[in-house]
User: Fold this.
Amino acid sequence: MEDKAVVVAMDNEILVSPLLTGACINCERSSCAKKGRPFSVSNPQNFPISVGSIVHIRASKKSQIAQGFIALFLPIVTGILIYFLASFLCVKFSLPKPQLIQFLSTLLGIVLISVLIYLLNSKKSRLHKSEICSVD
Assistant:
Protein backbone atom coordinates (compact mmCIF):
# COMPACT_ATOMS: atom_id res chain seq x y z
CA MET A 1 0.00 0.00 0.00
CA GLU A 2 1.27 3.42 -0.91
CA ASP A 3 0.26 6.78 0.54
CA LYS A 4 0.99 10.33 -0.48
CA ALA A 5 2.90 12.62 1.84
CA VAL A 6 4.53 16.03 1.75
CA VAL A 7 8.13 16.59 2.86
CA VAL A 8 8.07 19.05 5.78
CA ALA A 9 11.71 19.01 6.94
CA MET A 10 15.10 17.69 5.89
CA ASP A 11 17.51 18.39 8.76
CA ASN A 12 19.12 15.23 10.18
CA GLU A 13 16.33 13.07 8.82
CA ILE A 14 13.54 13.39 6.29
CA LEU A 15 10.22 14.27 7.93
CA VAL A 16 7.01 13.84 5.98
CA SER A 17 3.42 14.59 6.82
CA PRO A 18 0.87 12.20 5.27
CA LEU A 19 -1.84 13.70 3.08
CA LEU A 20 -5.16 12.36 4.31
CA THR A 21 -7.24 12.19 1.13
CA GLY A 22 -9.55 9.25 1.84
CA ALA A 23 -12.67 11.43 1.96
CA CYS A 24 -11.99 13.05 -1.41
CA ILE A 25 -11.34 9.98 -3.53
CA ASN A 26 -13.10 11.41 -6.61
CA CYS A 27 -11.72 14.91 -6.13
CA GLU A 28 -8.74 15.96 -8.24
CA ARG A 29 -7.85 19.01 -6.11
CA SER A 30 -4.90 18.28 -3.84
CA SER A 31 -5.27 21.61 -2.06
CA CYS A 32 -8.09 20.35 0.16
CA ALA A 33 -6.16 17.32 1.51
CA LYS A 34 -5.48 17.41 5.24
CA LYS A 35 -2.01 16.84 6.67
CA GLY A 36 -1.38 14.20 9.31
CA ARG A 37 1.24 14.05 12.06
CA PRO A 38 4.85 14.18 10.74
CA PHE A 39 7.16 11.17 10.97
CA SER A 40 10.57 10.24 9.59
CA VAL A 41 11.12 8.19 6.44
CA SER A 42 14.09 6.86 4.52
CA ASN A 43 15.04 7.57 0.91
CA PRO A 44 16.80 4.35 -0.16
CA GLN A 45 16.65 5.20 -3.88
CA ASN A 46 18.03 8.72 -3.29
CA PHE A 47 15.24 10.57 -5.07
CA PRO A 48 15.89 14.31 -5.46
CA ILE A 49 13.48 15.83 -2.93
CA SER A 50 13.11 19.12 -1.14
CA VAL A 51 10.80 20.61 1.47
CA GLY A 52 7.32 20.75 -0.06
CA SER A 53 7.83 17.77 -2.42
CA ILE A 54 4.91 15.38 -2.74
CA VAL A 55 6.16 11.80 -2.33
CA HIS A 56 4.67 8.32 -2.28
CA ILE A 57 5.62 6.31 0.81
CA ARG A 58 5.23 2.67 1.78
CA ALA A 59 6.30 0.37 4.57
CA SER A 60 9.57 -1.47 4.04
CA LYS A 61 9.38 -5.11 2.97
CA LYS A 62 10.79 -6.26 6.32
CA SER A 63 8.08 -4.36 8.18
CA GLN A 64 5.36 -5.82 5.97
CA ILE A 65 6.61 -9.36 6.61
CA ALA A 66 6.84 -8.76 10.37
CA GLN A 67 3.36 -7.21 10.46
CA GLY A 68 1.90 -10.16 8.56
CA PHE A 69 3.57 -12.64 10.90
CA ILE A 70 2.49 -10.83 14.05
CA ALA A 71 -1.06 -10.04 12.94
CA LEU A 72 -1.96 -13.31 11.21
CA PHE A 73 0.37 -16.19 11.99
CA LEU A 74 0.84 -15.64 15.72
CA PRO A 75 -2.88 -15.68 16.70
CA ILE A 76 -3.58 -18.74 14.54
CA VAL A 77 -0.64 -20.72 15.95
CA THR A 78 -1.54 -19.64 19.49
CA GLY A 79 -5.13 -20.80 18.99
CA ILE A 80 -4.02 -24.20 17.69
CA LEU A 81 -1.49 -24.73 20.49
CA ILE A 82 -3.99 -23.77 23.18
CA TYR A 83 -6.60 -26.10 21.65
CA PHE A 84 -4.26 -29.08 21.94
CA LEU A 85 -3.07 -28.00 25.37
CA ALA A 86 -6.71 -27.86 26.54
CA SER A 87 -7.31 -31.34 25.06
CA PHE A 88 -4.34 -32.71 26.95
CA LEU A 89 -5.41 -31.09 30.24
CA CYS A 90 -9.00 -32.33 29.86
CA VAL A 91 -7.80 -35.91 29.46
CA LYS A 92 -5.19 -35.64 32.23
CA PHE A 93 -7.60 -34.19 34.81
CA SER A 94 -10.76 -35.98 33.54
CA LEU A 95 -12.65 -32.72 33.06
CA PRO A 96 -16.26 -32.85 31.85
CA LYS A 97 -17.29 -31.26 28.53
CA PRO A 98 -13.84 -31.16 26.90
CA GLN A 99 -15.17 -29.56 23.69
CA LEU A 100 -16.53 -26.58 25.61
CA ILE A 101 -13.25 -26.17 27.50
CA GLN A 102 -11.26 -26.45 24.25
CA PHE A 103 -13.47 -23.87 22.57
CA LEU A 104 -13.41 -21.37 25.45
CA SER A 105 -9.68 -21.71 26.10
CA THR A 106 -8.88 -21.30 22.38
CA LEU A 107 -11.13 -18.26 22.16
CA LEU A 108 -9.58 -16.77 25.30
CA GLY A 109 -6.07 -17.45 23.98
CA ILE A 110 -6.76 -15.74 20.66
CA VAL A 111 -8.30 -12.73 22.42
CA LEU A 112 -5.37 -12.44 24.85
CA ILE A 113 -2.70 -12.67 22.12
CA SER A 114 -4.63 -10.10 20.05
CA VAL A 115 -4.75 -7.72 23.02
CA LEU A 116 -1.03 -8.26 23.58
CA ILE A 117 -0.31 -7.47 19.91
CA TYR A 118 -2.48 -4.36 20.14
CA LEU A 119 -0.66 -3.16 23.27
CA LEU A 120 2.75 -3.74 21.68
CA ASN A 121 1.70 -1.86 18.52
CA SER A 122 0.21 1.01 20.49
CA LYS A 123 3.73 1.88 21.68
CA LYS A 124 4.23 3.11 18.11
CA SER A 125 7.55 1.39 17.78
CA ARG A 126 8.46 0.84 14.16
CA LEU A 127 10.67 -1.99 13.07
CA HIS A 128 11.92 -0.06 10.08
CA LYS A 129 11.21 3.38 8.71
CA SER A 130 8.73 3.81 5.89
CA GLU A 131 10.46 4.51 2.61
CA ILE A 132 9.92 6.88 -0.29
CA CYS A 133 9.04 4.90 -3.41
CA SER A 134 8.38 7.75 -5.89
CA VAL A 135 8.14 11.53 -6.19
CA ASP A 136 5.38 13.54 -7.90
Observations:
- The longest strand covers residues 3-10.
- The chain has two helices and six strands.
- Residues 3-59+127-135 form a domain with the OB fold (Dihydrolipoamide Acetyltransferase, E2P) fold (CATH 2.40.50).
